[in-house]
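ok, trying the design again with the full structure, not the truncated one.
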């Protein structure tokens, strides 16, 4: 259930105020999401800043709701410290993109002050209460200090800060808030001053950053931050901001060139992962990643970090994380092929993957592959695969058919493409999870032969399982099944017959992990509840401590459950 914002005193900062702020910020980002995406031109014009900010705020809000749910009826209310720490942690683990990562660090800075770090609050709320040891501070002063700490930590998290961005807006908001706090303003006064200061700074961003000036837009990340600060003022004052922070291309700027002619050369990949590591190891990681690419942002602390960087060698970026600690939830998004296609150039190499499910198609697209979406059990013909190879618009293509029944069609399509001058290799993947494993090691800049060998090895080292529902009575390799039974298949053969999805999946996992494994991939069908994934993740964690689990949504057309063990 969405949280219903509660009215607040203008000088009261407590857990409920934070919860209201989070709820209003998520709603504001939801309304502005598409508009912010539309003006996203820096650092990469990939039209996702609004989406990334929204998804980060959604993760933070969900964590905050969970924190409140932990407070049982009849006990003391949730403390301010508990609320802000949960909120910041939720943003950290769910941060998406450059802007979302910076937002997560801004919230961490707020939490450091309001959550009881040195110089921060220590009670259940702030409104003239004890804070920061022996000194008593009003809520306005405390909020101003929190906004200042947030801006400082955000600047420190970015390897090479650039003005005219979200950082500039955060700094201006902090200075305005400090001035209001020094004038003995209430928390609502400080929030209003910060909001106004942010809006004024946002309007100046096109004159500070050439990419924005050429496009005639304000900074997209700054727009999102204005929405978040407007939500803070609304939470404390009960008044709605006068206007939404974005209305398309809101700031008229003289056009110095066609934005479509902007130079967009740069690293080909965005790499994001969570990292468990010491602060000393992260310091060394920053230096290593700074030499690999740009847009480096490392946020977090206390042993858990979120790492974001744009690089040409994603494998090296992940390897650097392995050296520093334990990276997980690794996300690699490809920029290069989209840029080359936009300029009408032929890419050197591309991947075409056949996948049963819209969610899987999205995952492949994020990895830079051209996806051929089919319903589970469908077999696309050779012409459809050939069309996908042509759409990839590359000199070299790696084809991942995703099923043994597709080998003939894949071979025919590859033969025709070769006749048209395209070098094609077919990797005999028999499941979508093997395709995901192959994509994870794909190196578009290495030699074609070495890339094919590495992808083939990764796919071959991945055992695959699938859960399906029997449509009728039948004889299987595991015995006789009845209509409605859940069938657990391992490497294409029925190994388990069960009555429930979760129980059958656990039996399949136990058999698959019996021969070892380091990573379990779960792909959930559209009708499978999240509770099943949570149960299976707990099952793996309890019985196989050294095994990590990643979960994806297969989306429409996907099987009930796909399992990969690497």
């Amino acid at each position: 259930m969405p949280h219903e914002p509660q009215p607040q005193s203008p000088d009261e900062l407590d857990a409920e105020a934070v919860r209201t702020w989070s709820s209003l910020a998520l709603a504001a980002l939801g309304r502005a999401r598409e508009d912010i995406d539309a003006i996203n031109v820096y650092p990469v014009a990939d039209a996702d800043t609004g989406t990334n900010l929204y998804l980060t705020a959604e993760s933070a809000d969900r964590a905050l709701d969970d924190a409140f749910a932990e407070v049982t009826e009849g006990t003391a209310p949730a403390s301010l410290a508990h609320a802000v720490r949960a909120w910041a942690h939720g943003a950290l683990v769910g941060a998406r993109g450059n802007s979302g990562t910076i937002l997560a660090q801004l919230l961490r800075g707020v939490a450091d002050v309001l959550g009881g770090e040195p110089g921060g609050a220590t009670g259940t709320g702030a409104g003239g209460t004890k804070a920061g040891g022996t000194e008593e501070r009003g809520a306005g002063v405390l909020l101003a200090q929190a906004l200042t700490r947030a801006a400082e930590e955000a600047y420190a998290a970015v390897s090479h800060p650039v003005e005219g961005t979200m950082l500039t807006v955060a700094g201006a908001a902090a200075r305005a808030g400090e001035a209001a706090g020094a004038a003995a303003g209430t928390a609502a006064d400080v929030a209003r001053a910060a909001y106004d200061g942010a809006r004024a700074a946002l309007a100046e961003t096109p004159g500070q950053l050439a990419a924005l000036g050429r496009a005639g837009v304000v900074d997209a990340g700054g727009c999102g931050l204005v929405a978040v600060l407007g939500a803070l003022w609304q939470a404390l004052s009960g008044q709605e901001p006068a206007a939404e922070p974005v209305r398309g291309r809101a700031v008229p700027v003289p056009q110095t060139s066609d934005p479509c002619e902007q130079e967009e050369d740069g690293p080909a990949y965005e790499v994001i992962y969570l990292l468990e590591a010491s602060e000393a190891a992260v310091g060394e990681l920053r230096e290593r990643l700074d030499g690999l690419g740009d847009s480096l942002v490392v946020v977090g602390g206390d042993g858990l970090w979120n790492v974001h960087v744009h690089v040409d060698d994603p494998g090296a970026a992940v390897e650097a994380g392995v050296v520093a600690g334990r990276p997980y939830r690794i996300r690699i998004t490809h920029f290069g092929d989209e840029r080359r296609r936009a300029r009408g150039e032929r890419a050197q190499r591309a991947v075409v993957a056949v996948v049963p499910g819209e969610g899987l198609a999205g995952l492949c697209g994020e990895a830079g592959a051209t996806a051929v979406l089919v319903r589970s059990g469908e077999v696309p013909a050779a012409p459809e695969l050939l069309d996908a190879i042509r759409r990839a618009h590359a000199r070299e293509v790696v084809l991942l058919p995703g099923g043994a029944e597709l080998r003939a069609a894949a071979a025919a399509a590859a033969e025709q493409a070769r006749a048209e001058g395209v070098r094609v290799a077919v990797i005999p993947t028999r499941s979508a999870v093997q395709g995901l494993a192959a994509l994870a090691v794909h190196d578009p800049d290495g030699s074609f032969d070495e890339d094919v060998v590495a992808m083939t090895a990764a796919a071959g080292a991945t055992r695959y399982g699938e859960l399906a529902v029997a449509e009728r009575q039948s004889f299987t390799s595991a015995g006789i099944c009845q209509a409605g039974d859940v069938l657990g298949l391992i490497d294409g053969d029925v190994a388990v017959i069960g009555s429930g999805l979760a129980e059958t999946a656990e039996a399949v996992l136990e058999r698959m992990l019996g021969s070892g494994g380091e990573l379990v991939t779960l792909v959930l069908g559209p009708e499978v509840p999240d509770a099943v994934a949570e149960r299976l993740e707990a099952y793996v964690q309890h019985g196989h401590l050294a095994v990590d689990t990643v979960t994806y949504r297969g989306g429409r057309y996907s099987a009930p459950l796909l399992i990969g063990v690497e």
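Keeping the full-length input from now on. The longest strand covers residues 293-301.
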